[in-house]
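Running this now, will post back.
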Amino acid sequence: MRRGALTVFVGALACKSPAELPEPSEIHLLSNTPYGSAVYVSSVWDVVGINEAISVPSVLAEKRSMGLSGRVEHWRQDLDLLGKLGVRKIRVNTATSPHLSHWAVGKRADQYARSDAYFQLLAGQQIEPIVMIGPWPGNRTSQYTAAYVPEDTVAYQAYVQQVVERYDGDGEADAFLMERGVRFWEVDNEPDLHHRAPVGDKSSPDFLTPEQYAEVYALTAEAVRAADAEAVVLNGGLFDTARPSGVAYFRAVEAALAAREVPSFDALSVHAYFQDQDASDFFKAMDAAAQMADGRPIFVTETGAPSDGRKAWISEEWQAHMLALVLGEALARGIEGVYWQGLVGPPPGPKRAKGSPGGFASHPLHVATRDGDAARAKTGAAFLASWLKGVQDVPLSKVRSVALQTGRAVSLGDAGVFLYFGAATVPAGAQVETFDLGMMEDGVVSAPALISGMSLQN
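Update: finished.
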């Protein structure tokens, strides 16, 4: 073994003792660079985001009859938490703050006062959003309409063009002065899920078909580009990314767009939730996304794992390990945006106390308290803040894939090698940061760990 090279052992997330580990294998940087063809990102900081981070739960807003000033105060609290994490990218759903669907805006007398205040807050903190746009709220769509395609398509396109022009930051008809306007627009949300009629939904097999989504996408994309020729238009995040049904839906949408002679998506938006112990469902989703993207940039606009549930391994610590794995794998694959599901979740209720997964309630990195005090940071939040502080400025041109027989790691330039799955021996003189999650014993470290101060062989 060359002096200073890192050696990696086979290991699970719960690391075996060194005596149980097989012989080490030497680690080498691969010649390929995951971000060699990156389009929209330049540093690690650009890649990491939170989905629906700045938001007021609808139930809370209705219960308190919350006006605009109350919403702004709530958004400021979320911005403060986001700042403590060090994250500056978010994704905005039309079903949550600032409720920017055509349906929702049409019901408000002060149509854009809420979204003006929202985007002004983001701009002031240099937070860049992916903004969802569409005719209906992006969750449980069929509860708002029996027909997915808007009846008045002219009015819908006028709305889209007005919204994009209002927030594109080009100095013409902008809501306020901003250094950089909104450039990413995502057309609706999880159309494949809404089409297949989940339990409790009023959908039918004829609701939100691939052809109907393609029609709405074509209308939306045309209006977006009329307002901002440089805008980036994404598909509505695919829910069943790892399943044949999701891939089939996506392919049918692309075929319908081709039949209309409408250019397809600038970038691919996919979702990848999981709760299996080894995250195999996440890896399957990423493999499928790479095939569907066909060379286009990939944004994982929703992903996450729970911190409580019926499965024995699920805990706050396990969730933090999964967050580390998601971040590492996204960087190793050249993903241009990965957005963890949720900043603040509701306090545990009776069902969750009994071990119920509670839907996506426990995915966020903080949990609200019943007494209204500051939200409690989970283990994953502490990890993310510490990890991002050490690697945020790493240029993506310095990111390198790592060749391992087993385990997973990615080289982050001068910051070191990020070991996000498995275990490794640490060469003499190297420094190791375990983020209070990885374990170090007798020269062996288990993931997650950032190992620096060593040489690597190309």
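The domain at 40-398 is CATH 3.20.20.80 (TIM Barrel). More later if anyone needs it.
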